[in-house]
Amino acid sequence: MYENHFGFTGAPFLLNPDPSFFFDSKGHSSALSYLKFGLYQAEGFIVITGDIGAGKTTLVRTLLNDIDHEKVVAAQLVSTQLEAGDLLRASIAAFGIPCKGNTKADLISTLEAYLTLLATQQKRAVLIVDEAQNLSRDAIEELRMLSNFQFGNQALLQSFLIGQPELRTMLLSRSLEQLRQRVIASYHLGPMDRDETRRYVEHRLRKVGWTDNPQISADAFDECYEWTSGIPRRINLLCNRVLLATFLAGEHEISAASVSRIAQEIRAEIGEPLLSNTGASASANASLALKESIIPTLTQGLDGPVASQSWVAPVINPEVNPNTPFLLCLTGSRTGCLRASPLLKALSCRTDLPPARLLHIDTPGHFELTQDWSEHLGLRNPDYRLRLPAGNGLTHLAATLQQLDQLFEQHRPAAIIVQAGDDTALAGSLAAQRHGIPIIHLEAGLRSFDRSRPQEVNAMMCDHMGELLFTSEWVAHDNLAREGIPADRVLFVGNLLMDAIRAMLPQASQPKYTLRQLNQPTDILKSKSGVGVVYLQQLDKITNPEELTSLVGILRMVSKDIPLIWPMHDSTRACLDHLGLLQSAHEGHIMALPLIPYHKMIGLLGHSACVLTDSSTVQEEATILGIPCLTLHNFTERRITVEQGTNIAVGHNSSVISRAVAEILRGGGKKGRLPKFWDGQTSSRMAEHLLTWIRAKGISSPDRSEEQTPLQVEQQAGF
Fold this sequence. Notes:
Number of helices: 30
Distance between the termini: 40 Å
Largest sheet: 8 strands, mixed
Oligomer: single chain
Radius of gyration: 28 Å
Shape: globular
Mean pLDDT: 83
């Protein structure tokens, strides 16, 4: 429709896979090389996985175009909702073989005879199974059995399994271990990066004769990447609509604003959330939610009212074997998941350690581990999941203990790994101690010396119950020694958060794209003084309206010198709005945002002039990123961030805060340095220490030297 307007010879962004438009990105080039390597080997299985729209089908069609059909006979299965018997029939039909019977013996005999005939003709057969994640396990096992067909020393059938990431999880299950041992190469096709996204768009445009008509700004390419995350099908959909809109407007230029506008239209059409503030109506609804005590929780949508759920059974991955010795890592918060991600990756590549499993606890109204979070962190789906009923802290603690007690009766870990001083760590430690399960405590020995804080008491109890204590700073050893904890239980390893942030930085999103996706103006980013970030996670614990009013007043005072961006939870927004403080914040130079994904938050922090927070995690993030941090408390258990990092504890003292902000505007604020062992290698050190500790404890570890661990499967086979 728009081709003549721009002088194109065809449509550049059709959704149907077309090998003539194949773009040789780093990922696609590697995946194609793995497929060709598989053809060269002429045996075993090749596995290629990728997200929806990553370009897997285009990859397969490109391979089929390159195959020497005089030597290789290729058949493709595209409908894979198949059981074992159906798979045999579908394979025979794909090769175009006439079948003389319907019994399984007839089907196998027919297929083997055909494959043997090909071998006598110096040909070989390749079966390409698209959307392989839809196959039943019996069907996959049938494929393995077919790989046993031989003619002399030659394998008669080679299979390529192409599918979505769920296929990786399937193949890692114990029941498919024999097939996994026959995977000679595999690769996970990830999204393209920012530069590749631009080159991909330009490549497809040049294929149809693009000569800079329309003109596309550099920001427009960046905007395209931000909205599509570098996934080819999303890029095609967005670019096609942008070209159409440009044509209908009679224009010949494409700007970032037009890309953003069309992207939001597409999201609205397909029902994806826009993550935008909705003004007064949102505030009114939030206020109503507060008054009626209606807070969205993870238990909504379950049968029956939330209040009636006094017990929710643990959700257990059916693939886990309760009889295999394993290490169990507990998470229940944003910070917990951040630290668990690099540790689990490090443990998963060690065959000399018991396998590591993840247990996540969902608490109503708190952090939710979504698929989006898991993908950005590289955190696999939990092996166990506890969903707590609605209630307060004590209710949640009791429910967690009850569920963990049941879980440990059925699935007894060799040891559990808990973190810092949240309620998840305390509940896990108490339940493990009752069952005689050793406890490993991360972030041990951190003290604010304020015993009125539940986190402080929790952390102390976990330290005294723990048999192996990993610390992130030397001062923690002094704290533990004063409390009588033997030094031989304590090891200084560094900060896991550094490992997580180092892995996350390549994905970090620039603030301007985050604001555009939230339908927010970007003018605030043009301030000569830079922009500050506010992150308050304990605001809902302040029940005194005067204290809240004072805090918002302090933020308004700061915003006169430096504009502030404040990502906040819905419950925080409702609380502020109920007290009439949200409008007060809007009247200052304070932009309120909903909570944003971590890769966007890191991008926001990394480009900020300072951060004001009550979060110990953000204090660490600021030190890692070199951003001045003003902690709105008079205490912190992360003392190293004050002594060596960029952190200053300013409390709610307006004069101290004013001086600190003035110093930031005048000279950039406090300059810190990275503490010892905050080097991105903490997870590797932990794995080494765990091996020594496990051997000393005599904890049995299954012989995994012959098997591929999940990370080794990913590295050797490209996952």
